[in-house]
Write a structure and sequence with these properties.
By secondary structure, the chain is mostly helical. It has 18 helices and 4 strands. It has one domain. A hairpin with a 2-residue loop joins strand 1 and strand 2. The C terminus is likely disordered.
Length: 467
């Protein structure tokens, strides 16, 4: 009998892998985004997109075998709402082939993969595993980006190959910035929402380390969205803590920029350009305003259904003014100089409005707003946990870190959509983010408000005894 109860390290490892098995394919999707993107490989599906399809298929097989209702009525409505506008816009596309392609892409990013991720996460430990996976990917991409800046092998910026783009290359300059921002938001949440000293220390160190690559991405949209999201997380975690953390971040910024001179001239000029969007905007801002105006004109001509999926590029020239340039200059990071056509308004809300009309915007926007409201409600529910119902020695209610991750990510994404839209190899990560947010907002709401329940999976000794 004693032999049956003997637990080996191998047994422990097998038990951990078995318990995390449903969510491991999602971790693989995140990990695959650390692989280099071939030069000139912009657009189209990549290996991470293919793996996201495996996640959807494997989730569907589990549901069929379990023969259970996969989603609550509320979750089904919130996640399925975007299908209405997407289907209508696909049917109204001028090019049926492009309409089908757009339909598949939108369903992948906003419906299928988020639902599969939501159904793959079983408890808060799985949720935290994915959050730490985001942090790990951000650290890797950030390290590559910093190395590119230091060695002058990044994407071209103001005539120098110093822009940090990670493994995504110059054709997806927002890729590394997005990944690093996601990791930074997760790290801040994991640091603020726990009473465990080790998790707080590691998460804080990761958050501080990610500030540098985010700065070297020279992405104004990512800076703004990260500032808004992390500021909201600090406020939601408590004003006193917000003041302390804000002082640490400010001191770190002063040391990096003022003391060490990290990219001083370029960073100061880039930061200053954020406030020059009206007086003396650069050409990238002029292009963005021009495409925003073109998208608005398209919507006015087709207010309910838009011009159809993938219809913005074909209708752009008929609505854009002469201020629009020929395209963005692409060079560096292993790519030869070329012009990249401007085929989207770089504003997700206006892209949906122009291609899907009011129907599509209300459907997608309604789904996102519902996720935001439900995520905030989940945070309030956790915050109301009485001290007597918390785990021994816990000053912060269990689940606060998960709540702050979800709230921070949805706030970041909705803010960033003002300056960016879907596209590029990193887009599949947006789908995973919505799935993670959806689990907290739509599934964990049924969890008890007290201490976290133990995992349903049997422990290793119990399994050994059973054998």
């Amino acid at each position: 009998m004693s032999d049956a109860l003997t637990v080996t390290p191998l047994d422990s490892a097998i038990a951990v892998l078995r318990r995390a098995l449903p969510v491991l394919p999602v971790v693989v999707v995140i990990a695959l985004l650390g692989l280099p993107i071939a030069p000139g490989g912009e657009g189209g599906a990549n290996i991470a997109d293919a793996m996201s399809g495996v996640v959807v298929v494997s989730c569907a097989i589990r549901l069929v075998r379990a023969r259970r209702r996969p989603l609550s009525a509320t979750a089904a409505v919130v996640l399925g709402l975007p299908v209405v506008g997407i289907a209508v816009a696909a049917a109204g596309a001028a090019d049926p082939g492009a309409g089908i392609t757009g339909l598949a892409r939108y369903l992948q990013i906003f419906v299928l993969v988020p639902a599969a991720v939501l159904l793959s996460v079983r408890d808060r430990r799985d949720f935290r595993l994915l959050a730490w996976s985001f942090v790990g990917l951000a650290l890797w991409q950030g390290a590559v980006g910093v190395q590119q800046y230091v060695t002058g092998t990044g994407a071209s910026y103001q005539g120098e190959d110093v822009r940090a783009v990670g493994t995504f290359g110059p054709t997806d300059v927002m890729g590394m910035a997005t990944v690093v921002a996601f990791g930074l938001v997760c790290a801040v949440a994991l640091a603020l929402g726990t009473s465990a000293a080790r998790q707080r220390a590691v998460a804080t160190a990761c958050a501080l380390a990610l500030l540098l690559p985010l700065a070297l991405s020279f992405s104004r949209g990512a800076w703004i969205a990260t500032t808004v999201a992390c500021g909201a997380q600090l406020v939601l975690a408590g004003l006193r803590r917000a003041a302390k953390v804000g002082a640490v971040v400010l001191a770190t910024g002063v040391i990096l920029v003022g003391g060490l001179g990290v990219g001083t001239a370029m960073l100061q000029e880039r930061i200053a350009s954020i406030t020059q969007v009206a007086d003396a905007p650069d050409q990238s801002v002029v292009d963005r305003y021009t495409m925003w105006a073109a998208a608005t004109d398209m919507w006015r001509e087709h207010p309910l259904t838009g011009v159809g999926l993938k219809g913005f590029p074909d209708n752009r020239d008929g609505h854009a003014s002469l201020a629009l340039s020929a395209g963005s200059d692409i060079a560096g990071a292993g790519a030869a100089f070329h012009k990249q056509a401007l085929l989207s308004p770089h504003n997700m809300y206006l892209l949906v409005l122009s291609e899907q009309g009011l129907i599509g915007l209300l459907a997608l926007g309604g789904s996102w707003l519902a996720l935001l409201v439900c995520a905030l409600r989940g945070l309030l529910r956790v915050r109301r946990t009485p001290p007597g119902a918390r785990s021994a020695g816990a000053r912060i209610p269990a689940g606060t870190d998960c709540a702050l991750v979800a709230c921070g990510l949805i706030i970041w994404q909705l803010t960033d959509f003002v300056y960016a839209d879907i596209g590029g190899p990193s887009t599949v990560l947006t789908a995973v983010v919505f799935g993670l947010i959806g689990w907290w907002a739509l599934v964990d709401q049924a969890a008890p408000a007290g201490p976290e329940a133990p995992a349903a999976a049997p422990s290793v000794p119990e399994e050994a005894a059973a054998r």
